[in-house]
Amino acid sequence: MVVDRIPILSVITFLPLLGAVIIAFLLWERPDLARWAALAAALLTWLFSLGLLVGYLPGDQTGGFQYIEQVDWIPAFGIQYKLGVDGLSLVLVVLTTTLSWISILASFGPIKERVKEYMVSFLILEVGMIGVFLSLDLFLFYIFWEVVLVPMYLIIGIWGGPRRIYATLKFVLYTLVGSLLMLVAILATAFAYADGHGGSFVNAFDFISLRDYAATAGFSNTLQLLAFAAFFLAFAIKVPMFPFHTWLPDAHVEAPTAGSVILAGVLLKLGGYGFIRFALPLFPDAARTYAPAIIVLSLIAIIYGAIVALVQPDLKKLVAYSSVSHMGFVTLGIFIFQAQAMNGAILQMVNHGLITGALFLLVGVIYERTHDRTIAKMGGLAAATPVYAALFGFFMFASVGLPGLSGFVGEFLVFLGSWSYNPWVAAVACFVMILAAGYLLWLFQRVFTGELSDFLRGLGHHLTDIRPVEILTLTPLATLVVVFGLFPGLILDLVSGTVTSVLAGMNGAVAIHFLPWQ
Amino acid sequence: MIASDLIIVAPLLAAILVAAAIIVADLIRPGNRTLVLLVSFAGLAAVTVLIWRASLNPGAAFDGAYTVDALTTLLDLLFVSIVALTILFAPDYLEPRRLPVAEFAAVLVFAMSGAMLIAAATDLLVLFLGLELMVLPGYLLAGYAKRDALSTEGAIKYFLLGSFSSAIFLFGLAYVWGLTGSTRVADVATTVGNMVSGSAPFSAGLAMGLAFLTTGVAFKIAAVPFHYWTPDAYQGSPTPITGYLSVGPKLGAFALILRLFVGALAAAKADWYPIVFVLAAITMTLGNLVALTQNNVKRMLAYSSIAHTGYMLVGLAAYAGGRIEGLEGLLFYAAAYTFMNLGAFAVVAALQRRPGVTSQLDTFAGLGRREPLLGILMTLFMLSLTGIPPTAGFFAKFSVILPAVEGGGWLTALAALAVINAAAAAFYYLRVVVYMFMREPVGEDDTSRHSSLVWTGLWATTALTIVLGLFPGPLLTMVSDAAKALT
Questions:
Q1: Does B346 fall in a domain?
Q2: A380-394 pLDDT per residue, tens
Q3: Do the chains contact at B419 and A150, CB–CB below 8 Å?
Q4: Where are the domains of chain A?
Q5: What angle do CA B196, B199, B200 make, to 5 degrees?
Q6: B123 backbone dihedrals φ, ψ, rounded to 5°
Q7: I need a labelling partner for A26 at 20 to 30 A (CA). Which of A387, B114, B182, B445 fits?
């Protein structure tokens, strides 16, 4: 089939870049065409990623990588251009490409100024995100990780809300500190590998070689502790884990709608992916050492996010804090080192991307009409905009974790896994479902039920119901939420190979005792 | 003087002849910009060809005082490109202010010949000669806008501190000569090696000499706390000259460090390692911290160039800590820094083509709307200076941090400090991007076009910034050869 004959991974990664170049150079005079070109590029990338999905299924599913592309890039340091896909990467890449075209479509209405710059930024962002998920060389991974920063910085900073400069600088600086420390850790790891191979840098940045080395000889305790800490910082800021989450509410609130969708839908997953793909296999002993602390931080994030969401006056900020809470399940599931929990964590990543992405789209719909996100000013929308209310209700229940919709399965698997780890952990996490129901149902009641508020009545005929284009952006997400709610096996079958191989690497791991009293 | 010696020093002689030719051309046809530029670029092209020819037959001249090796070639090529790019960017800025272009070009080429002399010097006195030949035209250039009080002030500060530091440096050289009885670098290296290994009695003179030499050199590269002349000299100078000063004399001073500390005093590495380590740490940190507070882009770039000196010193510290890759990192960083910094200053100069336009951040406000292409190029240079992939600046930081991490122990801590500084630096580099794309224009529009010279130079620096980031291979080979030739 065609995906076996072309370098499909490079195509998927760089097709958006081609679109960006076309817009920048050929369509500079025609901004009206720029958005269609961007949408075409994103759709084409999406189709190729679906083709990859079809091509991947018949192959090896036991945690190995398929469609590996490898070219020597900087032989002096052993750096290669190496891409490869396994179940986890595949699922996240398809999530990325889906959310990308949906976000671009959702940007057609709100973005009216400097459209071509926006589209170019968005497409470059897509290149970075896909590249992160597909890189098998640590140096290349780092490059794509940083490439994600600048377009996001521009998208928030130019097309964002009133406090956008503060929000975007906070986002960039926070992320940069974490990722630069990760660079030092990457270098230290490559050196340790080179030292173990007689000073030769061949394959020193190759993930597969490093993973095998970590599994057989293992990196030294000091290196593991420090390097894992650096990787942890970079990924924890991205996820975001408590207490590194403070950039998130500002960035989400000030970003334009599509920016929030891609930020919540994909960028946060970069952190979770990084933990599973790099931090755990390369530094298993350090992971086991830090796991209790990370589990505690995850629990705090789950509860804290929910409690703070409960008291938010701003609709978008409420959804942002609910993100912190949902992503807490992801890190909890990962660091329990148990198959069901990790499967649940990955599922939760996908679900959160779909559901919270949709919630941000919905918030964007109402913001387009009211230009005000204050919850207190709203009320009674169900009567005025029934279709919108129905969709919002649907995704709200998905976010609460109603069984039958996809949000439930991920969280349930994490509970199951954490119960076998420690029943109290599961109890605490479970308690949050009540809080989630609390803030979401209360939100729905305040915004949609009751009498139409004075503010909304004052908008008159501006308060239209959801438009067909907006429904078009939500439909794929709604479909997937239902499908994955009823058939989660579709994702679990793909990722279980990765989970098994990561946990196999964790089996021999022993916690390092570095504190004086241990 | 025999014929073979002359052939080896041909690039240097050609450089001096080019400078003279520019002056003569201006005497024949005063004020003819085209002729001056023609002579300059033809001359620089000839010098480049001679450099390449010389690189094919590496060797020494004048009884070992002048050596052509891989390091000489790399540095010479960098110096020629610095001067070529500066001459591209300058006329657009100088002519509206009625400052002569011909003298500017000639003085610049004289400075280049001084730098080329340093790059090839394997004798202490020749080294000093090259140093002075390089910096004296620099003082002149700093005060080029002679009717501007700021320019004169900056030039006087630069001149006074520069002369002072040259004197200190010479004093240190005198100590080293006194110890060894010879001014040849090779002889000094042997004597110092004997002293360190214990086969010769240790002399306190070595320590004194090292102290004076380090101080003198630290002034030249503007390491903290010897950097105080930099912000005023950079801010006062005409912008293209600031661009030149931030890369040319700095690269020349690093060439001096390489020839002297690595060529002659390498055996005493363990002695000057702590000094370099501390200098690197405080230079990076102070440069970044003060740059955070600047509202004037030229002054901000001045402090940022101090910070970049710090990063380059990390490479030197890594070498002193035992990793030769530190030298490679230093040279790669110097090359990448040259192009990205020149590019940034070129944009500032282009915006200041009308006399009276300041280099405050307000000048950049709304540039994304007024001149989008210039805004995008400036963004690229800012990103490269921050060290965001896939630019040359990122790979430069990578190549300097790599050996530091490899060195282990304290050096790894220095590497961590370097990356934290890089993250902090993002704030003031990205602030320029904020002004360009996220603020409204201030003041009225200047609709005059930039000359094709400026655009040629901008595209050249842009291309190099991107290419060195994506395909650093060829430059990595060159710096590796240069480092091996030196050690």
A1: yes
A2: 888 888 899 999 999
A3: no
A4: 303-507
A5: 75
A6: -145, 140
A7: B445
